Amino acid sequence: MTPIDLRSDTVTRPTAAMREAMARAEVGDDVYGEDPTVNALQERLAGELGFEAGLFAPSGTQANLLGLLSHCQRGDEYLVGMDAHTYKYEGGGAAVFGSIQPQPVLHAADGTLPLDVVAQVIKPRDPHFARTRLLCLENTWHGRALPHAYLREARALCDRHGLALHLDGARLYNAAVADGVAPREIACHFDSVSVCLSKGLGAPVGSVLLGTRALIDEARRWRKVAGGGMRQAGILAAACLHALDHHVARLADDHRRAAELAAGLRGLPGIDVVAQHTNMVFLDIPAPRLAALKQHLDAAAVRVSIGYTPRVRLVTHLDVDDAGIARAIAAFRSFAVE
Ligand SMILES: *Cc1c(COP(=O)(O)O)cnc(C)c1O
Q1: From CA 84, how far away is CA 261, in angstroms rounded?
Q2: For 82, 173, 256, 279, which has the most beta carbons within 10 A of its beta carbon?
Q3: How far does Cα 205 stand from its chain's mean position?
Q4: TM spans, by residue (predicted)?
């Protein structure tokens, strides 16, 4: 039985058509700026999202790091959500490589960072304090698309205080598809945006940082320093271009399947469906049942990451079809009645 893998949308494998596009890619040495396919990807995303320039990076972690290193100097500070990927899941890279101090802010229930709290933690210009330089948001956040009115207010706050605004847009395309808007209608509020092509869009590798030409020139320097300068990377960029051509509109299928999965699990004894947004479903399972659930799902070839906390996240993506959703629901049902 082929496993249904709901651990993350990073597990997608390149389709046959994507592999063909990769095989056909024209390439050159991208450290010399001579890979035509990388250049095409960077220019296409810059145009699509409304920025002057883009920079291909091997991971979203690196794209965010390059953004932070380019906006901030040693001793500067960035404001970030307590559960944000850049703060919590990127090894503290901004502090490690940039001596950039994070100022974490507690998320509201809808994933936003309350702007009155953000305003309070902006430091006055005074030698006692780190220089607050940047606010970093994440969209989608736990699958939720941030409200457009909130983005506008965050932009206005940054303008009032002279801060730059960066978006970790690993799943920006999910947010745009869910909101029914062009991605640039979200990106337009930000000074820089990182997007992942390797999540629900289904490319094997690749993120792009977008910003002004000056910011991207600085980021290119930092990418080399970080060891992210790749050579014939057009093979990877071709997969990303293929993803943009063929895998954006279909994100709506992932969102529909996540909603169907949530509906199928709602009301089952011992399974509390906490939330469903875009391609993510969150469940709470009583802690003493977690190990048994894992065993049960493994036996049914349904892969779910179950950690030490009762909160379980299920993620739909390119490699999960309707039959897979039905099988996952059946596996949870048979567990619930066990
Ligand atoms: C996946 C992800 C990233 C980047 O992760 P990489 O694995 O380094 O590509 C950044 N932010 C969010 C919110 C993510 O989900």
Answers
A1: 25
A2: 279
A3: 13
A4: none
> Into which CATH architecture does domain 250-336 fall?
Alpha-Beta Complex (3.90)
90 pocket-lining for ligand 1 (C-beta < 6 Å)? no
CA distances from 46 to 51, 53, 95 (A): 5, 5, 28
Dist. CA 204–CA 237, nearest whole Å: 10
Instruction: Tell which CATH classification among 3.20.20.60, 3.60.15.10, 3.40.640.10, 3.40.50.170 matches the domain 10-246.
Output: 3.40.640.10
Residue nearest atom 14 in ligand 1 by C-alpha distance = 170
CA of 333 to the centre of ligand 1 (A): 31
Residue located nearest, by CA, to atom 5 of ligand 1: 60
Q: What number is the average pLDDT over the span 174-191?
A: 98
What is the tens place of the pLDDT at every residue in 249-273? 999 999 999 999 999 999 999 999 9
User: Is 166's C-beta closer than 6 angstroms to any atom of ligand 1?
Assistant: no
**Residue 218 phi, psi dihedral angles, 5° rounding:** -65, -45
The pLDDT score that the predictor gives to residue 337 is: 76
